[in-house]
Specification:
Chain lengths: 431, 431
């Protein structure tokens, strides 16, 4: 793995290189995606079935479109019992963490009869997109469904592309069922996003669409944003390990590779104050790559977006971590909690040498759907907050309004909004 | 004002008619907006000054681009002192309400050495767009800046188009200064959004862009979403009054008109169970329209998007309110609090006959930046939450990880992610 001495110039080059991975760069597919969306809006289910035949190579009909209870039961017979048991254990942790995110409606009242508040209401219908294709990630199914469920969403509708046999992977069905999904439809790609956003004969329009997908799915989500809400636009995975000389190079190397294996666009970066650690991690990485099953992907990812950066001091290292704003940040320093207080931008922060990143992917409880590509500067992990909306509550008594009615009228008049002023004034006109 | 007997068919027609007002319908301007964005990314300040000359008819240079302290001082001399006093009173209420929205980082630890948490960090830089043109709304300046300020945003950067004299309206400057803005630049339109999203020589890239604007501004915000965060895409204003026979028709009529006067696309709807109230409100509306200064706008708005709907019962009336999901909802019924508990979708809810909508626009404290066009089904009022982001915190001890390490390894292997499994396994290999 390349070792680079951290300079301002190097840092800027790296930041620019990493942004090449952004789904924002793929606008060339926008027209294709818009065509698919328009077609689904116009032809609904018919368009979906045509795309599924074209892209997934399987004929789906009204009768086979929705996953049946029998299909789910069958799926259970095909999944290893040990895996079901692990999924159930993980679910306990994931539910437990998200439960702590639940917020309450509140109000604050005064004795003059005024009351102000904020009402929390769960979204009514949510669409969860689950990718098909090369990789099957039941953990991702859990992470997208649980926060919606905990928020109190009435209907959770999942879509996922069927295999050539017209079935959904058994483990996907089991994970979705365990997490509490309400309906599952066999459709993927931009067409699935369009169906969820605008509705078809079979799929009722949802309020929000979440879940990862390929570039077509990402662009479709961006295109329908505003018609519905979306989570964020997911980019390739990332890890940044912030380490000093106290870190175990073997653990650091293994953790870097855990993200590098996701895909060739994934990024694994070590920022360290220790030149010795840099060298040792690089050696350990070389040793691991040889024996890991996804070595081709890992090597390409490391060559394109992997760096070991040696910083002059911890301040420079922390500043760099904040500028990169990584999806996953591991802090392996003498005092990880102290270092953590200086972190501004990161999706999830893993503290100390036993908080390996995959612990968060599967088991600890916090969501593994995290902001990528520097968007941790302004986006947050998927959470219960994503599945509720707020309404302000305003209640004034006659007495309270009377005290301030001329202020409001004068403010409205200053904005030349006389009907605004009038609506307050009529309440105090001579009767 | 037209009175319509509520039926399923009428309701669907109305819902469809209202959605015509959505900024999502204006994709024909997308190419123009994309060209502006590309030009600003390439030519930065130079492009901004060219657009300002073209669209706003005034030559701005590096020297006059940023509003100076002297310009702000000068603005104070031109604004009515009474208005400044009202702004300060409103600010107290707005700050006070938003202060209640502040959330804390939290953690939960167990005695086996595990700790999970959620860290709250304010966004570093926020851009606030303030429209120029026909209308000057200092209240909107307050509502966009205060939540960012309360959240702890380090730098709040405002952009607004200059007038032909190269100046910003004095009241806009005063409101921005009172609310605590850090920098103000004289640029508007899609070019201002592009500058905030990507940065120029003068304007540093921000993390999030908020604030209302015309269709070009709305489309530009949608286009840069993902590069930065945005609030939501604002549509025309709306009010829905839910009333029974106990409501005062004169107040209801005045409140409907307060939103109808905003623009010709605004929508004012009364849903009532009382035919008598319907008739009386219609008469009162006619009386008011004659004498109000913005009567042309009001009449067009009412003709296109104004309705008095008579429902068979309160349940039907409430269901309709939930389906329309109005930006502003007034509840004027026998027991407004009871009715409120049945409301799922609304930006802001005003309870009882003295909670006239303009009270919320200017003074009560809750934000007046609210979801429009049915998006209250999934979007929320602008709040302190919009100016923070969250990071998950995960810290496991060796002891805690040891208990579950084989579960994680097996889960990772089931997803065929062997480097994930390896990163956990190395921590428990025989040393």
């Amino acid at each position: 793995m390349r070792i680079v001495k951290l300079t301002e110039k190097e840092k800027n080059n790296i930041l620019e290189n990493l942004l090449k991975r952004s789904p924002n760069q793929y606008s060339k597919f926008e027209d294709t995606v818009n065509d698919i969306i328009e077609n689904v809006r116009a032809n609904k289910d018919k368009a979906l079935f045509e795309y599924t035949e074209k892209f997934d190579g399987v004929k789906i009909t009204e009768e086979t479109f929705k996953v049946t209870d029998e299909e789910i039961e069958e799926a259970y017979t095909k999944v290893d019992e040990r895996l079901i048991e692990i999924i159930r254990k993980a679910l306990v942790n994931i539910r437990d963490y998200h439960q702590k995110q639940v917020r309450y409606s509140w109000f604050d009242s005064k004795t003059d009869g005024t009351l102000l508040g904020q009402k929390i209401t769960p979204l009514a219908r949510v669409g969860v997109y689950v990718p098909g294709g090369k990789a099957v990630y039941p953990s991702s199914v859990l992470m997208n469904i649980v926060p919606a469920k905990v928020a109190g969403v009435e209907k959770i509708v999942m879509t996922t592309p069927p295999g050539k046999d017209g079935k959904v992977y058994p483990i996907t069905l089991v994970a979705a069922h365990e997490a509490g999904v309400d309906e599952i439809y066999k459709v993927g790609g931009a067409q699935a996003v369009a169906a969820l956003a605008f509705g078809t004969e079979s799929i009722k329009k949802v309020d929000k669409i979440v879940g990862p997908g390929n570039i077509f799915v990402a662009l479709a989500k961006k295109a329908v944003y505003g018609h519905v809400s979306i989570d964020s636009i997911a980019g390739p995975s990332e890890i940044l390990v912030l380490a000093d000389e106290t870190a175990n190079p073997r653990y650091v190397a293994a953790d870097l590779l855990s993200q590098a294996e996701h895909d060739e666009m994934a990024s694994a970066i070590l920022v360290t104050t220790s030149e010795e650690l840099a060298k040792k991690v690089s050696e350990e990485v070389d040793g691991f790559v040889k024996v890991l099953s996804r070595k081709e992907i890992i090597q390409k990812s490391l060559d394109s977006y992997g760096y070991i950066l040696v910083a002059n001091d911890m301040k420079e290292a922390i500043d760099t971590a904040n500028e990169i704003a990584s999806e996953h940040l591991e802090i392996v320093t003498k005092n990880p909690f102290d270092t953590m207080t200086r972190i501004k931008n990161a999706g999830a922060i893993f503290l100390g040498e036993y908080s390996s990143e995959p612990l968060g992917d599967y088991f600890a409880g916090p969501n593994h759907v995290l902001p990528t590509n520097g968007t941790a500067k302004f986006f947050s992990p998927l959470s219960v907050d994503d599945f509720i909306k707020k309404s302000s509550i305003i209640s004034y008594s006659e007495e309270a309004l009377k005290l301030i009615h001329t202020d409001i009228e004068d403010f409205a008049k200053a904005e030349k909004l006389t009907a605004h002023a009038n609506s307050i004034a009529v309440r105090f006109e001579q009767k």
